[in-house]
Amino acid sequence: xxxxxxxxxxxxxxxxxxxxxxxxxxxxxxxxxxxxxxxxxxxxxxxxxxxxxxxxxxxxxxxxxxxxxxxxxxxxxxxxxxxxxxxxxxxxxxxxxxxxxxxxxxxxxxxxxxxxxxxxxxxxxxxxxxxxxxxxxxxxxxxxxxxxxxxxxxxxxxxxxxxxxxxxxxxxxxxxxxxxxxxxxxxxxxxxxxxxxxxxxxxx
Length: 204
What we know:
Layout: E1 7-9, E2 11-14, H1 21-24, H2 44-47, E3 70-73, H3 85-92, E4 97-100, H4 105-113, E5 117-120, H5 123-134, E6 139-142, E7 147-150, E8 153-157, H6 162-170, H7 174-196
């Protein structure tokens, strides 16, 4: 996972509340084993009819939004099942940040683990940002400075736990965090274990 870099982008606006993980990534695609390329299935059933015909009325497919790396969403975004593929699909479609009044708890935790920043703001402010996104404003997400800017004006600070911020900025996953925080203790344990039960390590 690469470290989070400042995002400057137009934003897509999906104001619907309680968009669950089955809408974000339909369950029938869970059999796909390779996470690469899952972005093509993002919001699949909102983008295609049952016969596979491409629809033209989905908000994220408006002209110019193929460049969007920021998604502004309604409350409860990512609720429902815990499938991590919903996050993989968003990342695979080049989204780096989702702004909403609230998120599904497991979804939000999965976002941090996969380099996707979630920003929680009051509903009224999210609606105002959505209006600016629809008007074509340029958004800037600066995690280093904890700032959200629109057309260069600071509109909000990014409230995030410092541990999560470090994970995102450095591109660390959970294993990286464990090794950095507890690596010395793990190495000490392994050394003592090998000395106490050497027969377990004869093939090494």
